[in-house]
Amino acid sequence: MTRLFVVTGAPGAGKSTVVPELVRLNPGNLVVMDMDELLDDHGRLLGLDITTPTAAPIWPAYNALWLRVTELIRRSGIPVLLLSPLLPAELPEGRWLHLDCPDAVRRKRLAGRGWAPGQIAEALADAAELRKHVPRSVRGDVAPERCAKSILDWIRGERFGKTLSLWGRLRS
Predict the structure, then answer these.
(1) Which of 59, 121, 134, 154 has the most other CB atoms within 10 Å of its CB?
(2) Helix orientation angle between 117-133 and 103-112, rounded to the nearest 10 degrees
(3) What region does 131 belong to: left with phi over 0, alpha with psi -120 to 50, or beta?
(4) Could you please report the per-residue DSSP string of 120-170?
């Protein structure tokens, strides 16, 4: 089956911000989706708020739904890029890349969204956990176009068997 590419990142990494640039720069041979796109403005799916820790029992079903959606697209031969906050163990398929930013940037972004200090602390802990499980990273604290180009470069490299070291290249 055609490949699934997953760009993961904790809240505030820049996933939703980079989606329009990924779509704009994509030459049409890749479907770009953000896991949040199935949710309404209040974080609900089919009337259920799945964004809170109390919804944890339904998260595996939500993850399985996304995996099935990507399979339906990929069976036509079109690769999929899914932006997600998940760990590889939660969606055990695909090639993984980590969209990351410094903790100070994340803290400022989330505070700007009105997040409480406890929620921000959880997001920082999520980011630290993702760094352990998905060490290949691109920066989410650069211009969205630059970030999108780095992600698309990574996908091209993965599709053609070339491993790219993107984080170091983007530090300059």
Answers:
(1) 154
(2) 140
(3) alpha
(4) HHHHHHHHHHHHHH---EEESSS-HHHHHHHHHHHHHHHHTT----HHHHH
Contact 109/172 with Cβ under 8 angstroms? no
Facing residues of 8 across strands?
A: 84, 98
| Gyration radius of the chain over CA positions | 16
Residue 37, both tokens: 């796109």
* Both structure tokens of 51: 């964004």
Say how far apart CA 147 and CA 44 lie, in whole Å.
Answer: 28
Measured distance CA(51)–CA(131) in Å, rounded = 22
Residue 168 vs residue 79, higher pLDDT: 79
pLDDT tens for residues 147-158?
A: 999 999 999 887
Looking at the DSSP bridge assignments, the partners of residue 6 are: 82, 96
State what percent of residues in the chain have pLDDT above 90: 65
